[in-house]
Design goal:
Elements (H helix, E strand, L loop, with lengths): L1 H34 L6 H12 L8 E8 L5 E5 L4 E2 L6 H12 L6 E6 L3 E2 L2 E2 L3 E5 L13 H11 L4 E2 L3 E4 L34 E7 L9 E5 L7 E8 L8 E3 L7 E8 L5 E6 L3 H15 L3 E2 L3 E4 L14 E7 L3 H10 L3 H22 L9 H16 L6 E2 L11 E3 H13 L4 H5 L23 E8 L2 E9 L5 E9 L10 H14 L7
Parallel strand pairs: 6-8, 7-9, 8-16, 9-17, 12-14
Antiparallel strand pairs: 1-2, 1-23, 3-20, 4-7, 4-18, 5-6, 10-11, 10-15, 13-14, 19-20, 21-22, 22-23
């Protein structure tokens, strides 16, 4: 009985062991089949991309895509390429291309210090006017004080006192401070700062909030730089645990006052926020006033700012005495930062600069416009003329702002890829190509596609807003072929369990980078 049980046990063990070995072998083969992806070639590329965009999670969404070879000119892949999609921040590519074509990569934007009267006996008996022409990087480099540079030049001109006011003149842009179609909820945030011909510190102020000394006390608010602090109503109260911190910040559109309210726990760490400046030109003037004081120059008047449509004939620069100018970094550097980190202010300012320059050219030529057209509209008109000149299908481009913040922007993948293809082969477009984020290395692609074949091969602009993701740029395949591509997803709200849509965009870019054969000429 015991021997029979033992022999049965051994026979069962043998069968189980053989079955286990068969299971392991089968599992290894299946894992190899699943883990070792077949090499991507041109013939299989379309089906593999189709499998990604055709996943069940995208059943209610829409994809627009096109991939074009810069070497053969062939369309390598397309999906609804002629339909219109909300592009989000890849719309910045249109603005960047237009600005570089209009001004050139070496162009520097001027900020000028002017006086409304002559200097006599060490005194300026009129106003001192700081005039901006759109530089979005004024104050960005904290190691170089633009305000001290201008103050020193005024002192060198022999001025020790200013009787009049300090005026920040931002009227070079004849347009509202917010792009067409920008949402009111965005206008307080760091990504929705106002565009201004006289911008400073990227039109941002940092706010740090700490609990008060005891429960019931008001929270402590600290603005950096201090001169940028808005008028604030502080109703933030310190509370004891277990009540949770719930800070709310609100500034009504067009209103200068910031409302801060809600509880902050007594043991909470410092809470940091980046907020949009309400009046960048006035902040710039106040920074100039502080620099003048450091140079021993007294200012009797007040600080004020002037924006369109305020107009003031007394501030016509042709009637003013020039004290000094400072220049921005080259436009290529502005474009690079604007695209690498998707800086909305930079690209909106650049579009308005194009429009303002068009208006200035008309004035110089003596042309009297039949109707008012804002700097933004003029800039968009210039964009359409540029796209027509380089052969980009105009029917696939409906642009409302320069930054891509507007949901009224629409483009087709075919039109944007046509722009990329033109610039990909243009010998004078290096500044545009170098401004794109590199996969896994910098900008908005720093943490994406890292340590994949895409690193060093994919250079592309990202786009993201609610229900929309996009990616557009260039890739060099494993076969050495250069491709331009545009990928857009619209109307998609992922669930918690879904793969992030940006991961699928990246997967397609990686497939392109892996492609081991070239398209036919």
């Amino acid at each position: 009985m015991r021997d029979r049980d033992a022999s049965g046990f051994l026979r069962g063990l043998k069968i189980t062991f053989c079955g286990l070995m068969l299971f392991i072998a089968t599992s290894v083969n299946e894992a190899a089949a699943q883990g070792a992806k077949p090499a991507t070639d041109i013939a299989s590329l379309a089906s593999r991309i189709d499998a990604i965009i055709g996943a069940p999670r995208y059943a209610s969404a829409a994809w627009g895509a096109q991939v074009v070879s810069l070497d053969s000119g062939k369309v390598v892949y397309a999906h609804d390429a002629d339909k219109l999609f909300v592009p989000a921040s890849i719309a910045k590519l249109y603005t960047a291309a237009l600005a570089l074509d209009t001004f050139g990569p070496d162009y520097r934007i001027t900020t000028s210090l002017l006086a409304t009267s002559r200097i006599a006996h060490g005194e300026l008996r009129g106003d001192l006017v700081l005039v901006g022409y759109g530089d979005p990087m004024l104050g960005f480099d904290r190691s170089l004080s633009w305000a001290d540079t201008l103050a020193i030049e005024l002192r060198k001109a022999g001025v020790s006192a200013v009787r009049g006011d300090l005026i920040g003149d931002a009227t070079w842009f004849a347009a509202p401070p917010y792009g067409n179609g920008w949402e009111a909820a965005d206008l307080q945030s760091w990504f929705g700062v106002p565009a201004s011909a006289l911008s400073v510190d990227e039109n941002l102020v940092k706010l740090e909030i700490e609990p008060g000394a005891k429960a019931g006390a008001k929270a402590r608010l600290r603005f950096t730089p201090p001169a940028s602090a808005p008028e604030t109503r502080n109703d933030l109260r310190t509370v004891s645990p277990p009540t949770r911190t719930d800070i709310s910040l609100y500034r009504a559109p067009g209103d200068a006052r910031l409302h801060a309210f809600g509880p902050i726990t007594s043991n909470a760490s410092t809470q940091t926020f980046r907020l949009a400046l309400h009046d960048p030109a006035l902040v710039a003037v106040e920074q100039l006033r502080a620099a003048l004081q450091r140079q021993g120059i007294r200012v009797a008047g007040k600080s004020r700012s002037v924006y369109w449509p305020q107009g003031d004939d007394a501030l016509d620069s042709r009637n003013l005495t020039r004290i000094a100018d400072i220049g921005s970094p080259p436009l290529s550097e502005i474009i690079k930062r604007g695209l690498k980190v998707s800086q909305n202010l930079y690209l909106q300012n650049l579009l308005l600069m194009v429009g303002a320059q068009a208006a200035a050219d008309e004035r110089t030529a003596g042309v009297v416009p039949s109707a008012f057209r804002s700097s933004e509209i003029r800039g968009i008109d210039a964009l359409y003329r540029y796209l027509k000149r380089i052969g980009v299908p105009a029917a696939g481009v409906l642009i409302e702002d320069g930054a891509g913040l507007s949901r009224r922007n629409l483009t087709s993948a075919a039109s944007l890829t046509a722009l990329l293809a033109h610039l990909g082969n243009a010998p004078d477009a290096a500044a545009f190509r170098l401004a794109l984020p590199e996969a896994g290395v910098d900008g908005s692609l720093t943490g994406r596609m890292r340590d994949t074949v895409a690193q060093g091969r994919v250079f592309a602009k990202t786009g993201s807003m609610a229900f929309t993701r996009s990616l557009a740029g260039y890739v060099t395949t494993a076969a050495g072929e250069r491709l331009a591509f545009t990928l857009m997803i619209n109307n998609y709200q992922p669930s918690v369990r879904d793969v992030r849509p940006s991961a699928d965009l990246d997967e397609i870019a990686i497939l392109l980078a892996e492609t081991s054969t070239r398209s036919a000429p």
